[in-house]
C-alpha cells in the first residue's frame, strides 16, 4: 500500500527535475552495468517516466563496484535488484537486496510485489524461512542467529512456487514464516547456501506486451506509455 503513496511523490519529483533541470525527453535505450534498459522499463534520472510502466522504473547505483539497477518504487529503498531483463522472452531476474545484514527477509516477496504487474514464475522454487517458534534441529540454519537478532531460524525448500503454501507437518504451526522464490537448489545441501541462493534471484514474468514495440523499434520509433496506453513515437 505504501508503494501507492510513494509513486505519485516520485513522479512529482521526477517531473519537477525534468522541467527545471533540462532533462532529456527521449526514450533512447540506456544501460546500467550489463543491463540494457528500454521499454517497458525506464531509468530514473536518464529517461522520462513515459518511457515505461511507472512500476518498472529502475534506479542505477553506479558505485563502488559494479553498477546495479534496483526497482525504484518499492516500500523500502533498494529492496529488489534487477539482474537480468530478457526482452525476447518477456522475463526478468530480480533478487532481494539490502536487508539490513540479515539474509532472511522480514517480508513475503509475493506480498511486496503484489502491486507490480509481474507474475512470479511457477518455474521458481519456494524457499521458506520460519522463526519465533521451536525450530526442529534438522531444519536449523547455521550462522544465522548471529546475523538476525539472535533468532533461531529454520528453512526448507518446496518443489514449486505455485504449491506448498502451508508449513509441513514437522514444523510447529505457530511459527512465523516468509517465502522467497529461488531459481535453484533442491538438494538438501542448498540450505547451507541460502545466501547465494537468494542472491541468485528469481524469475519474474512481465505483462503481455501492450503494443508492437519491436515493430516500432524496427522503424526507429520510440515506444512510450501515455496514460497506460501504448504509443509509437516516430521517428
Ligand atoms: C541473462 O540471461 C541471459 C539469457 O537467459 C543469459 O544468457 C545471461 O547469462 C544472463 N546474465 C546474467 C548476468 O544472469
Ligand atoms: C543468543 O541466544 C542464545 C540462546 O538463546 C543465548 O545463549 C545468547 O546469550 C544470545 N546472545 C545474545 C547476544 O543475545
Ligand atoms: C508454540 O506451540 C508450542 C506447542 O506446540 C508451545 O510449546 C509454544 O510455547 C508455542 N510458542 C509460542 C511462541 O506461542
Ligand atoms: C507470509 O505468507 C505466509 C503465507 O501466506 C503467511 O502465513 C505469513 O504470515 C506471511 N509472513 C509475513 C511476515 O507477512
TrEMBL record:
Protein's membrane topology: Single-pass membrane protein
Q: Which InterPro entries match?
A: WAK_GUB
Q: Where is the Wall-associated receptor kinase galacturonan-binding domain?
A: 27-93
Q: Which UniProt keywords apply?
A: Signal
Q: Indicate yes or no for the key word Transmembrane helix.
A: no
What domain of life is recorded for the organism? Eukaryota
Signal peptide location in the record? 1-18
Localisation per UniProt entry? Membrane
Q: Name one GO cellular component term.
A: membrane
UniProt-recorded name of the protein: Wall-associated receptor kinase galacturonan-binding domain-containing protein
* Organism from which the protein derives: Lolium multiflorum
Record lineage: Eukaryota, Viridiplantae, Streptophyta, Embryophyta, Tracheophyta
